[in-house]
From TrEMBL:
Pfam families cross-referenced by the UniProt entry: CorA
InterPro entries for this protein: CorA_TM1_TM2, MgTranspt_CorA/ZnTranspt_ZntB
Record-linked Gene3D superfamilies: Magnesium transport protein CorA, transmembrane region (1.20.58.340)
Source organism superkingdom: Eukaryota
GO MF annotation: an example: cobalt ion transmembrane transporter activity
Keywords associated with the record: Membrane, Transmembrane, Transmembrane helix
Name of the molecule in the record: Magnesium transport protein CorA
Keyword check for Ribonucleoprotein: no
Membrane-traversing stretches: 362-381, 393-413
Major location (coarse): membrane
Keyword Transmembrane helix annotated: yes
Topology in the lipid bilayer: Multi-pass membrane protein
GO cellular component: plasma membrane
């Protein structure tokens, strides 16, 4: 990915520069170079599509219970590494990245074992020949797809998403297709071209171009651009469903844990909620792109309209399901946060009640020992009346018992109410006398 490469591709296929601008938008939100023009309006994105691809990774961590401080440290390291990665990409001409290097849009850490990287496929549909009036089948077009994935990530300690370090690896994106398991002999081995690569380090997105279009009809692909990219949509939907399944499983763990871990779960749920909100907005943009592809500006194959329409309907149905699932998980997370905060408030109230009971016991002990301390200090005074007489212990007991009894009487009797009744009777008798 270099500036001359972008210039050559754009000039060769007459690509809208906005396509490159949006794909390379890595400016930080608090940076001086951010103009906040992206996301753009749907009307200006009729020929552009952005599909988020999420790859799940796993690390071989210890089976002990995850520590919140360790997870927070991993997230902090990941955030710093991601910011440095985006800064390097944004320099473009002065970047040290080579052509074909992979890019990462976002990096999520769930626990010490599971993490996920977010990448993107940007698609541009560029008409090359105008169709005759009322005939969309004669229009030719160019489709340009730009994938964030390329070569495997290097095993650098500065890249926490790099596999091969800490015994980590990527999970494959599994796409379900009817009866495909019985036709596995028809598919070639992706590594049969002589290239050797470690399967644990492969991003599934980087294998997408291999044998692409095997399930599509070439005759329809030549006339219908949206049908041509159906497999890309299917791949993106499959990766996002795996991502949502992981979040669902993580929520089950953190919403059913012991109350002693409520405070740690609260921070985790806020992290998940922020993640789901971002995914929710991106899924809405994908659905808008699917609707834009049904507009007259996109060529269609009227001779095979039923098959192309069925494929488009299935894709829209899948992403509508992803949107509904994301909303459901976001709502579940919000409700879990509310329940957790209420539970924590109740726990704090219970602790306050317990503490008040302990303070009450200490107060009761003070009502016993303070009068005893007074009488003890009284008999210990160096005065002539006490020193000249041999007073026994019974004198101290005889004096202490009435004083302690008086103090307890004052403790259990409401003096203010008693004084109020006395004042009331006094005023009543004064009134009768006058």
């Amino acid at each position: 990915m270099t500036a001359p490469w972008i210039n050559n591709i754009g000039a060769r296929y007459v690509v809208d520069p906005e396509f490159f601008c949006r794909h390379l938008d890595f400016a930080p939100a608090n940076g001086n170079s951010n103009s906040f023009s992206i996301p753009a309006l749907p009307s200006s994105s009729g020929h552009l599509i952005e599909l988020p691809i999420i790859t799940i990774g796993k690390r071989m961590a210890s089976p002990d219970a995850p520590r919140a401080d360790k997870i927070n440290e991993l997230r902090s390291q990941g955030s710093s590494a991601l910011a440095a990665h985006h800064h390097q990409i944004s320099k473009l001409a002065f970047s040290k990245m080579n052509l074909g290097d992979s890019m990462v849009r976002n990096f999520h850490i769930f626990d010490e074992i599971h993490f996920a990287i977010e990448q993107r496929i940007s698609i541009c549909m560029q008409p090359t020949k105008k169709a005759k009036k009322g005939d969309r089948t004669s229009q030719t077009f160019t489709l340009l797809a730009w994938l964030d994935s390329g070569s495997d990530f290097p095993n650098l300690t500065s890249h926490p998403w790099s596999v091969g370090r800490s015994r980590s690896y990527f999970l494959p994106v599994i796409r379900h297709k009817s009866m495909v398991a019985l036709k596995c002999h028809l598919f070639t081995d992706p590594s049969s071209n002589g290239e050797e690569s470690n399967g644990d380090q492969i991003q599934s997105l980087s294998r997408l171009p291999h044998d692409y279009g095997r399930s599509l009809r070439p005759s329809i692909m030549a006339k219908d651009p949206f049908y041509t990219i159906i497999e890309i949509f299917n791949f993106a939907a499959s990766s996002q469903v795996q991502f949502l399944n992981l979040i669902d499983a993580q929520l089950d763990v953190h919403t059913s844990g012991p109350t002693s871990q409520d405070f740690e779960s609260l921070g985790y749920l806020k992290y998940i909620k922020h993640m789901l909100y971002g995914h929710l907005q991106k899924t809405k943009h994908v659905l808008e792109s699917i609707k834009n592809a049904q507009l007259p500006t996109w060529p269609k194959d009227d001779s095979n309209s039923e098959k192309a329409a069925a494929a488009a309907h299935n894709v829209e149905q899948d992403f509508q399901y992803i949107l509904d699932r994301t909303i459901s998980l976001h709502t579940r997370t919000t409700e879990s946060i509310s329940v957790l905060m209420s539970s924590m408030s109740i726990s704090e109230s219970q602790r306050a009640i317990t503490q008040a009971e302990r303070v009450g016991k200490l107060t009761l002990l003070a009502f016993i020992f303070v009068p005893l301390s007074f009488t003890t200090s009284f008999f210990g005074m160096n005065v002539q009346q006490i020193e000249g007489k041999n007073l026994g212990i019974w004198w101290w007991i005889a004096m202490s018992v009435p004083i302690v009894g008086l103090v307890f009487a004052l403790y259990f009797i409401d003096i203010s109410a008693l004084w109020g009744r006395v004042r009331g009777h006094f005023r009543y008798y004064i009134g009768l006398g006058t």
